[in-house]
Design goal:
The complex is a heterodimer of chains A (357) and B (114). Chain A is an alpha/beta fold and 357 residues long. Chain A folds into 3 domains: 60 residues, no CATH class; 95 residues, Elastase, domain 1 (Roll), CATH 3.10.170; 160 residues, Neutral Protease, domain 2. Chain A contains 10 helices and 9 strands. In chain B, helix 1 crosses helix 2. The chains are: A alpha/beta (357), B alpha+beta (114).
């Protein structure tokens, strides 16, 4: 994604702002990442005195495919064998028959559903827009209670049977993890504080849209839940998060109460969880839900389009909620007209969660 | 030795924590806990920015008390992430977290895993 050759080293390197270096670390090749780390270290003293923004010209939009052109996913699913070495043993590749292992087949089908949403609705061929292979590993770790995107692939645990059952059991989880990849290849959002919460929120929004698109659900019919169906049998909760009602997804002796806010007045300042990235994501999550509800119909069509356009245009890995809100209104105006209902409702949705555009 | 262990983050952003005491752990888990504390005490904690945050990665927070003078306990605290923890520490952290979850589930009379 970055222009080659690697960035030149000369005195002006010291005025490269930190968000550019973060973007290079997120998106550059190995040589570029190493150079960014070195530059960051060399320039720390200088930066304290002279933080000066440079045009973020190294961001490039994902490649778009031409109308009528059809590209399928390139899926690869591996079995980590309850160990932690990745990717593991190959179990199913594109076009193979079902493997007969539920987690392998769920990861495969879910990756296909997510790819289809991005391709058919947003003209994006895979995470990078260039047909990147979708690599997943299942059966990771022993009783592993998590799923994550490691920068190159998806990783899914089987759960311990108490808190979680296998995490591939929720399509919204698969769509969520893959959408972290989309964020990474769209300029990135630093995984800390508000930009980190936006990163989480984008993954949540497109995780639920993956479900809605597969099921052809309307805004009213959809559940708006992330991670439904993966809690253990005795956990009291519907899901990990609710975009419709942040703070109400679970209330359980072991897990505690869902801490997500739905409004800026309830923003949680914390050093834990990378500054509450999974907590404060409730605010942009709910803004998206409100926008989709105002617009009605199928959420991936207009609301999803505005959010996707915003991710492509925001161009700042350190974006705050306010930056994102501003850009989303701008995107709605650009696509649907400045006086359009879409633009008015986008602005109103943000206002209702405490962000005035 | 008394410890307190928490896991946080992950796709759920869930924080699960609980106390542990090597006096009432099974011998193998007590040994695991002691090894973990020894490792945590020796290992340098990476500074912020030294490690890359992985979306939905899990983090762990371990604290333990040591009697450094008669009647004077000092509490130490160490953070780990899946990306920076030495493999042996990660195995120990996960084993002790499984014990915390097992105890919590047993305490409410529910399902205690596989």
């Amino acid at each position: 994604m970055f222009p080659s050759p690697a960035l030149p080293v000369h005195p002006i390197q010291c005025i490269v702002p930190p968000y550019i270096l973060d973007a290079i670390k997120l998106r550059g090749n190995a040589q570029q990442r190493a150079m960014a780390v070195r530059m960051e270290s060399d320039c720390r003293a200088f930066r304290a005195r002279r933080e000066q923004a440079a045009p973020p010209d190294s961001f490039l939009p994902a490649a778009r495919i031409s109308a009528g052109e059809s590209r399928g996913p390139k899926r690869e699913v591996y079995d980590a064998g309850n160990g932690s070495s990745l990717p593991g043993t190959s179990r199913r590749k594109e076009g193979d028959e079902p493997a007969g292992d539920a987690q392998v087949d769920e990861a495969y089908e879910g990756a296909g559903d997510t790819h289809r949403l991005y391709l058919e609705q947003y003209e994006r061929d895979s995470l990078d827009g260039k047909g990147l292979a979708l690599v997943s590993a299942v059966h990771y770790g022993r009783d592993y209670n998590n799923a994550f995107w490691n920068g190159d692939q998806m990783v899914y645990g089987d759960g311990d049977g108490t808190i979680f059952t296998p995490l591939t059991g929720s399509l919204s989880v698969i769509g969520h993890e893959l959408s972290h990849g989309v964020v990474q290849y769209s300029g990135g959002l630093v995984y800390q504080d508000e930009p980190g919460a936006l990163n989480e929120s984008f993954a949540d929004v497109f995780g639920v849209l993956t479900v809605q698109y597969r099921n052809d659900e309307t805004v009213d019919a959809a559940k708006w839940l992330v991670g439904d169906g993966i809690f253990g049998p005795d956990i009291r909760g519907e899901a990990l998060r609710s975009l419709k009602a942040p703070g109400n997804a679970y209330d359980d002796d072991i897990l505690g109460t869902d801490p997500q806010p739905y409004h800026m007045d309830l923003y949680v300042n914390t050093s834990s969880d990378n500054g509450g990235v999974h907590i404060n994501s409730g605010i942009p999550n709910h803004a998206f839900y409100l926008l989709a509800s105002y617009l009605g119909g199928k959420a991936w069509e207009k609301a999803g389009r505005i959010w996707y356009d915003t991710m492509q245009a925001v161009n700042n890995p350190h974006a705050t909620f306010a930056n994102w809100a501003d850009k989303s209104v701008e995107m709605a105006r650009e696509r649907y007209g400045s006086g359009s209902l879409e633009a008015v409702f986008t602005r109103r949705a943000w206002k209702l969660v405490g962000i005035t555009v | 030795m008394k410890l307190h262990l928490a896991s946080f983050g992950g796709i759920g952003g869930l924080r699960i924590d609980g106390p542990l005491d090597t006096e009432d752990l099974a011998p193998d888990l007590a040994a695991t806990a002691r090894r973990l504390v020894a490792l945590a005490a020796l290992d340098r904690e990476p500074e912020r920015g030294e490690t890359r945050s992985v979306p939905d990665g899990l983090g762990y927070e371990l604290s333990w008390s040591v009697e450094e003078a008669p009647g004077r306990d000092v509490t130490h605290r160490r953070l780990f992430s899946e990306q920076n923890a030495p493999p042996e520490a990660l195995d120990s952290l996960q084993a002790l977290m499984r014990e915390i979850v097992r105890r919590k589930a047993a305490a409410r009379g529910g399902h205690t895993g596989r």
